[in-house]
C-alpha cells in the first residue's frame, strides 16, 4: 500500500485529476446508485477550498504589503489594464458573434425567486458597501472585495511594525499556504465526486434544446481563450504565448471548470503563480483581485444572452448601441462578484438597455440557469485561468525588458 501511494504521488497533479475525471464519468454511467456516496468527496473538496481561500487571501495580501520595501517594483498597473482590456474585448467578441450567429430563445419560467439589481448605480453601491464590510463578516461570507480592502489597509498600517511582527504575519501566511497545498492534493477525489454529481443530477438531456445557444456561448469563450488572450499576451511578452496559455488552462482552468467558483480556485492559482516563479508581492494581490474584476466569461454570458433576448423579440440594434452593450457587459461583469447569483442576475440590467421588460429578462435568466451546468463551468474556467495568464504576462514583460529569458516549463 505504501509503495502504491508513493507511485501515485509521483504522478503529476494534472494526470491525477484526469484519472479522477474518468473514474467519475465511468461510475456515473455504470453504477450511479451504488456509487452515490462519492458525491461527498466533491462537496468536501470545494468546501475546503472555499473555507481556506478567504484566510489565505487576507494573510497573503497583508503580509506582501507589510513587507513590501519602498522602491521594490510590482506589476499591478499592467495587470489591472490587462484585466479590464480582456473583459471588454470578451464582451465585444460576444456581441459580434451574436450578430453573426443570431440565437432565438424559447422563453421559460424558472427565475422567479431571485431579485436582480435595478441599475448600474445599485451594482456600484453593492461593491462600495462590500469594501466597508465588517472584516470578520467578509471572511465568513467570502466577500473578496471586503477582504482585499481590509488586507491592504492592515498591510499599510503594519509597514512600520517591528520586524518580529512582520515575521509572525509571514509565518502565518506560509502556514496557510501549506494548508492549501494539502487541500489541493485532494483534487483528484474532489473532481471525481463533482463530475459524478453533475452527470447523475443534471444529465445532458436538459441541454439538448439549447444547443445553438450553448455553441455560441462556449464558442465565444474558446475564441477568447485561444485567440484573443494569446494575442494580448503576445503584445506583452513578444514570444509564443501558447505554452503559457495551455499551462494556465490545464493547471487552473481544469479545476475551475469543475468547482465552478473563482474564489475556490484562488489557492490553485496561487500555487501556479509560485510554480511560474512569479513575484509573490504581485500575485498575492493580483490573483484575488482577478477573482473579483477579471470576468471575461461573465462578459460573454451577459452579452450573448442579452442579444439572444433581443433577437427573440425582434428588436433592431444599431452599431453604437452594440458598442455600448460591450462596455456595459464589461462593467456588469466586473461587478458580478458583488451581486448574489453572479453574471446571470446582471442580464436584466443589460436587457434594460433595449427596453426589454423585467419579466421577460428574468425568463432569460431562467434559461441561463438551465444551461448553467456547462455555461458556468466554461465561464469560471476562462475567468480563473486568465487571472494567472495576465499576472504572468505583466511580469514576463518586465523580465524581457531586463534581458531575462522567459521559459515556460511543460507539464509532466
Automatic annotation (TrEMBL):
GO terms for molecular function: neutral L-amino acid:sodium symporter activity. Signal peptide: none annotated. It is a multi-pass membrane protein. It comes from the Bacteria. Its main location: membrane. It catalyses: L-threonine(in) + Na(+)(in) = L-threonine(out) + Na(+)(out); L-serine(in) + Na(+)(in) = L-serine(out) + Na(+)(out). GO terms for cellular component: plasma membrane. Involved in the import of serine and threonine into the cell, with the concomitant import of sodium (symport system). This is Serine/threonine transporter SstT. The gene is sstT.
